[in-house]
Amino acid sequence: MSKQHTTQRELFESGPRWVEDDARHGTIATVVLPAGVEKPLDYLVPESLAASVEPGRRVRVPLGRANREQLAYCVAVRHGELPQAPLKSVAGVEDEQPLLSPRMLELTKWMAERWMARWGEVLEAVLPAGVRLRTRVRTSPLLVASGAAAPRRPTPAQARVLAAATEPQTAEQLAEATGASRAVVQRLHKMGLLQEAGSVERPLRSAAAERPAISHDRPAELSAAQEQALGSIKASMAARRAETIVLFGVTGSGKTEVYLQAVEETVSYGRQAIVLVPEISLTPQTCDRFRARFGKVAVLHSHLTPAERHAQWREIASGRVNVVVGARSAIFAPAPRLGLIVIDEEHESSFKQATAPRYHARDVAEWIAKAEGVPLVLGSATPSLETFARCLSGEWIMCRLADRVGGSQLPGVITVDLRERGSRSRGAVSPRLAAGIRWALDGGGQVMLLLNRRGFATHVQCHACGHTARCLQCDLALTLHQPGSRGICHGCGLVSRLPADCPDCRAPGLVHSGTGTQRLEEQIRRSFPEAAIARMDTDTMRERGSHERTLDAFRNREIDILVGTQMIAKGLDFPAVMLVGVINADAALHLADFRASERTCQLVTQVAGRSGRGPLGGRVVVQTSTPDHPAIRAAASHDYEAFVRSELPVREALLYPPYGSVVRIVVRSVDERAATDWAGHVVDRLRREAEGTPAIRVLGPAPAPIARLRDRFRWHLQVHGPDGAGLRALVARATAGLKTPDNVAWIIDVDPVDML
Ligand code: ADP
Ligand code: ZN
Predict the structure, then answer these.
(1) Among 118, 571, 674, 680, which residue has the fewest nearby CB atoms (within 10 Å)?
(2) Which ligand approaches the C-alpha of residue 478 most closely?
(3) Atom 18, ligand 1: which residue's CA is nearest?
């Protein structure tokens, strides 16, 4: 009681001063520019705009000596003493309502620090373009009887419409209610017998209607492990605890069902849920299950037009939609009554944005969940090491779902050692794998073959001198694509005609070595002529809707063997798959990336998990040149945790995440010398700054693993340290005020997931 008193006194005593002495006091708006000036700027708010300038709206402000008007985000408004130097004034207000809530402003500010991005850049990134540009949401006029005298006797249909039009309705609604045609309604409108009374946003085209309805019944009962996981989430929700709950569940253990029921619970509280999936087009099944369970689901996918996105945004903000499903950026959906956040396949690297601001949706979700006091649910059969470590430390809660639901077993895995003689007698397919395919087909099952390399041949090489055909613009070998024997660069997409003879030594005939998905498909066709075969990779999936079509065909058993890249590894639940073959498990194992083993283990475990989900059972054949590698061994024995236990100490010793933070800087230039010099200059500054802090290590500069891309030379360097905030502060100090040469571009990536 007395405490409250003092607060009010203080407020009172300091309050009236600015009111009395208004010559030296005023209202000041702090604004952030989307680009250009990085620092927040103060402007005076003129009396006429005092009512409309508020945090979260955009304003127009004069900038520079020419006072060119620019759009800026108002991030704070305060009343107070004016500085000595006169302030410029806000020229106008752009938005009728705030686009960003105070919480979003706080979040974006935190993101800017967390990923060393500019605040303005983050503000732009969290708002969809359709919202920023206010792309028009399509509306329909509402019509109502005007009461005007009819020039002639109305026809019976006209009379019905006029009688029904006592309340404002759309033309569609009037036509539907009276059985009259739209033309009748329009005619009455033209005649002035119906008049407009406002408008409504047109209902969104329901994407669900475009897809065949699949039935996903709510199972009669949950497994004990599902029950327990759901119980933890519900308890957290009821107590309004901002806990992070990790569902570490083998493939097919029923994680999605737990998400669905947790979302049901959220909705029953009258609250909203955001569900993040790695990529909408690759996870049509998951989206369908949410659509089937909940009537109104906003699915935010990358094919939405800006207008559609704007409309979705408004539906969510108005609270008319309870469930939002989308990829990374859906985390910024403006749900006013948020009750739960779910991230499915939380280990996926697509949750980190590859362009500035380089945020990670998992960390953003954690921040929002804490701020809103709601639970965050992360699910995966192969949780990231970052997530695992936080469960081991007791900070997050881990729920294990160790078995598949319905008693189906995890498939037996056979490893084929590619170093053994005879293992490759049929091109890329070993006799063991071929026998496995035959076994599945004879048993009436389906087959999935994973090869993470598209194209026909991965190298085009001279057998005499070893010369490899390379991209003119990139430091990458060309991949041969058929038909037409085109050499395509997978870095920049440039297509080159491949020479018939070696351009170096003139030896005739270049050899096509290495197998891509095209060649694999061809080999499989030859070996299994009676089977229906389809291929899924970026080359065959360019058309909108092609994923869905191929997956539907696979589900309907029109396809026996599906060949594909990692696109086929995720979240698919096809009970008839009896065999999964991994053509080359080591393909990504030896990349210069500290997460190479983790990714390999995850990919092989995930794709193996597509097998044996139904009553037919299943097997997996993994071809590898390093069968004893912990990543491969763990995946082959369904023991992801064994891999985690072997990998965590390695990370700890090197201070890599989750035990430390990494800042990677990539420098690019058309001029190799300029790139090298600049990288060297930045490294010198970092080393000087890090002197006396032995825990911080500066590595590099060195050519990036892809040393040239799109005609730019690439150099990179890394800084590691045990404490992220300290490390970022150090990098910020070292790079402050650097004047970058014109022909150099460089980026800072905090806790990168891409090291190439
Ligand atoms: P995950 O997401 O862990 O891979 P899913 O939720 O997709 O697992 O479940 C795998 C399959 O089992 C799905 O077809 C799903 O409908 C079914 N399923 C999930 N939970 C149950 C349950 N309690 N009883 C019966 N079937 C279930
Ligand atoms: Zn290229």
Answers:
(1) 680
(2) 2
(3) 254
Phi and psi at residue 611, to the nearest 5°: -90, 150
Give yes or no for residue 700 CB within 6 A of ligand 1.
Answer: no
Q: What domains are defined for the chain?
A: 8-98 (3.40.1440), 139-201 (1.10.10), 224-406 (3.40.50.300), 408-458+514-651 (3.40.50.300), 661-750 (3.30.70.600)
Helix, strand or coil for residue 437? Answer: helix
Task: Look up the pTM and report it.
Answer: 0.86
User: For position 206, what pLDDT does the model report?
Assistant: 43
- Asked if residue 573 has its Cβ within 6 Å of ligand 1, the reply is yes
Question: 259 CB contacts (<8 Å, ≥6 apart)?
Answer: 275, 342, 344, 377, 379
User: What is the per-residue pLDDT for 470?
Assistant: 86
> Is there an atom of ligand 1 within 6 Å of 502 CB?
no
Sign of CA dihedral 438, 444, 449, 455: positive
- Residue 21 is predicted with a pLDDT of 55
Using the mean position of ligand 1's atoms as its centre, give its distance from the Cα of residue 218 in Å: 10
Q: Cis peptide before 357, with omega less than 30 degrees from 0? A: yes
Assess contact for 47 and 27: CB atoms under 8 A.
no
Please tell me the predicted confidence (pLDDT) of residue 424. Answer: 66
Q: Which two tokens stand for residue 544?
A: 């909108």
User: How far, in Å, from the CA of 257 to the mean position of ligand 1?
Assistant: 6
The arrangement of strands across the sheet holding 446-450 comes to 412-417, 619-624, 577-582, 446-450, 561-564, 533-536
The protein residue whose alpha carbon is closest to atom 24 in ligand 1 is 219
Query: Binning pLDDT at 50, 70 and 90, where does residue 542 land?
Result: confident
* 406 Cβ below 6 A of ligand 1: yes
Locate 391 and state its tokens.
């469960």
Residue of minimum CA distance from atom 8 in ligand 1: 254
The CA distance from 407 to 225, in Å, is 13
Sign of CA dihedral 638, 640, 641, 643: positive
The helix/strand/coil state of 429 is strand
Q: Is 249 in the pocket of ligand 1 (CB under 6 A)?
A: yes
pLDDT in tens, 80-114: 888 888 899 999 999 988 999 999 999 999 999 99
Residue of 217, 289, 573, 610 to test ligand 1 pocket, by largest number of atoms within 8 Å of CB: 573
Would the CB of 223 count as within 6 Å of ligand 1?
A: yes
**Peptide bond before 701: cis, by omega within 30 degrees of 0?**
yes
Q: How big is the CA angle at 377 (ends 259 and 356), to the nearest 5 degrees?
A: 115
Collect residues with CB below 5 Å from ion ligand 2.
Answer: 471, 473-474, 489, 491-492, 494
Q: Which residues contact 683 (CB under 8 A, 6 or more apart)?
A: 698, 700, 701, 717
Torsion of Cα atoms, 541 then 539 then 532 then 287, to 10°: -20
Lowest-confidence region among 41-55, 116-130, 238-252, 536-550: 536-550
Ligand 1 atom with the shortest distance to the CA of 286? 7
Q: Is 400's C-beta closer than 6 angstroms to any atom of ligand 1?
A: no
217 Cα nearest atom in ligand 1: 16
Q: Which residue of 247, 255, 257 sits with most ligand 1 atoms within 8 Å of its CB, as the best mutation to test the pocket? A: 257
Give the start-end residues of each E strand in 178-278: 194-201, 244-249, 272-276
Average pLDDT, the chain: 89
**What whole-number distance in Å separates Cα of residue 690 and Cα of residue 681?**
14
Provide CB contacts within 8 A for 705, sequence distance 6+: 591, 592, 593, 755, 756
Alpha-carbon distance of 571 to 282, in angstroms, equals 8
Would the CB of 255 count as within 6 Å of ligand 1? Answer: yes
- What's residue 23's pLDDT? 67
**578 CA → ligand 1 middle, Å:** 18
